[in-house]
Specification:
Distance between the termini: 53 Å
Order of helices and strands: HHHHEEHEEEEEEEEEHEHEEHEEEH
Strand content: 15-25%
Number of strands: 17
Radius of gyration: 22 Å
Number of helices: 9
Mean pLDDT: 85
Helix content: 25-40%
Low-confidence stretches: 19-36, 41-75
Structural class: alpha+beta
Length: 409
Amino acid sequence: SLSLSLKHALFLHTFPDAHSHSHLHTNFTIIMSSAMQQISMRAAVRSSTVRSAKKQQQSQRIRTVTRAGDGEYGASGTSFYTTTEKQDSYPSLENILDKHCADATLKACIKELLDGCADITEALRSALVTVEGTDNSFGDKQLSVDVIADNIMWDLVKSSPTIAFGASEEEPVMVKCSGSDYTVCWDPLDGSSIVDNNWAVGTIVGVWPKNTGTGDDGMLGATGRDQVCSMVALYGPRTTVIVTLDDGVYEFSYGCTPEGCQLPDGSFEPWICSRMNIKINEDSKIFAPANMRAAQDTPGYKALLDYYMDNRYTLRYSGGLVPDVYQQFTKNMGVFTNPTSKTSPAKLRLAFEAAPFGALVELAGGKTSDGVTGGSILDVQINEVDQRTALAIGSANEVARFNELVVKK
């Protein structure tokens, strides 16, 4: 069933003046009951279909497809197919957190944030992508799904016993919350320019102790290295979330029904750990070049792009930060580059995008560059909530190549 925060977000999206009109409150239960019945019926049909398909798969192992040699599959030889095989069983979220997250308060916060990602998943399955007629603080047009996702995150953050301050990329102002421990920054739905295509989008979250930095909000004056946790959710055909834990990066999958994950009541674990202690290799043959306009007045970036093509790297770029960097954790390699120039200024937000992703990539063995000094993005001090930055992130040797050719370091 949908959580209360999702119901509330959907209701407020449909009736934005509900707080000021008592008759809407009177009709809320009836309206939501009817809507939830329809959603529940659709969910039941989906669940039945998924479980039927899963039962057919239980008797066979997933076919392993490796990178083909030249001539075997032709162009497919550079596609980097998965080598992941089906497991007999998968550990639950609770099992992994008990073993790999020693701080009980942080564990509770992670579970709350994952609940938010689950609610956004359900909302995206039924919401249309339309323009809201409002702009965020950066002048970007807000979409219906942006507003719904952000409302879900705000409902979660404001009711959390662990979150003391919160800020959204949609409105980058620190807001005091009722919790006691953490400052949380999030991009509720990264990829607004491609979500209407029904392409993969995501949610990015960074968690700081509230006592870091120079102020009382745990943010200004802090760096990305001060984060105690970061996570990125990818909403595609499946919902998966990568999370930094005590000893590495772990991936959790939502709503899967594999063998070995069924509970005594016949339901399945809401979150299972699909991959553990993920690593990013030092070398890569996959590249994702953002802000290619900067190559027009940055000779070093043009030289880097020429290097990728001359050496037959595989292009994997969608224009969405989440899928374009997340692939480094599934392919165990990759580099995402987003330099700046006089005519192509920085767009990525340090606190909402670059720092959370930086913590994940570096914990997995990758490297980051601030695009200016060549140093780690995690060492850049956050002086403004909406601070922008250049970024190179991914396989260590590829980020070093970016520093050599583009940053000249």
